[in-house]
Design goal:
This is Phosphatidate cytidylyltransferase. Pfam families: CTP_transf_1 (PF01148). The protein has 15 helices and 4 strands. It is mainly alpha-helical and 405 residues long. The chain has a two-stranded antiparallel sheet with strand order 1-2. Strand 3 and strand 4 form a beta hairpin.
Amino acid sequence: MAVQVGLGRSNFVPISVASLCPCSRARPFLKPLEFPSASTKLNIRLTRMVSDDMYGIPVTILTRHRTVMAVARAEPDRLDEGEAKEEVDEGSSLLEKEEIHIEEQHKASQLKNRVIFGFVIGISVGGIILAGGWVFTIGVAAAVFIAAKEYFGLVRSDGIAVGMTPPPRYVSRVCSVICALLPIWTLYAGHIDISVTSAAFIVATALLLQRGNPRFAQLSSAVFGLFYCGYLPCFWVKLRCGLSLPALNTNIGYSWPVLLGGPTHWTVGLVATLLSISSIIAADTFAFLGGKAFGRTPLINISPKKTWEGAFVGLAGCVATSVILSKILCWPKSLPSAVALGFLNFFGSLFGDLTESMIKRDAGVKDSGSLIPGHGGILDRVDSYIFTGALAYSFVKTFLPLSGV
């Protein structure tokens, strides 16, 4: 951003440095000159140029703006005070408008990036879900590894580390690797309980045997990281890959392309995963739109932008999506089961979102990272899915058989 100062209908004359400086002396080698006549007008125009910085007003504008104000006040007895004040007010108004314009450009750019990258991510995730098996598991492991790194980065941030002792860096890195290996082990072994217990034991032993004084805060934050970033996401692998019973209740199952695995690939796990993820996306989308349109009452202090009105709209959208997809996919068969699954997905997504908001609030950051333009970090995108996988799997595995589905 640059400012062009035009001097019209006036002669170019130097101005006394003494008049611009509050001190009583001027430097001896600077000779002050006066205006040639009192009737000469100083016509100052601020012309807007192309901005190179879309995130804020450069220091140059503010500096030159102060210079303009100093020039206007330099010779009060020779310059009409009304005109000087008018020119200064015009410059201030221009700066305010420029700030608003730049902020609007920044928000528009963020929204554009959010939509573009959200669409790309949606297509990629959809393909990974349909592929299933090792493709799905490796995708989950990669997301878990990045999310774990972001989590331990938040734990080591100034906002949290001031009130506690974070785990050493080597423990954080080991925990991130363990979290990434847990989904792979879940697919290979079919269970996860023993692996999580063993990982927690290894991390606890490493912390207890470290040099210096081991702290409980180190142990608690590391073990919670294993649970939050490693154990819970593994239920998505159990849901998608573990429930391999074919779901041949619709024509979609019988006509499923051979390229994608044939009818036997259309399983209960695939249908449950598609339904759960779709309802979570609907919950987030409807909650955002409802909060924008009707939001008045704050939901909770740790996330000031969330409102009760947005939460109710999100719940309605989540349940409606679950019911509609259950009718299309003919799974689950009963309406109460579809409604119950919608409720579980909504509250699981809301709880995961608020949990990450609490961590970020203590860390004093807005986003967990900057990997995805317009979205923040991986943890910002998957926070709604962390708890819902465990809830959806437990519901399908435990409660649906009891209702005859």
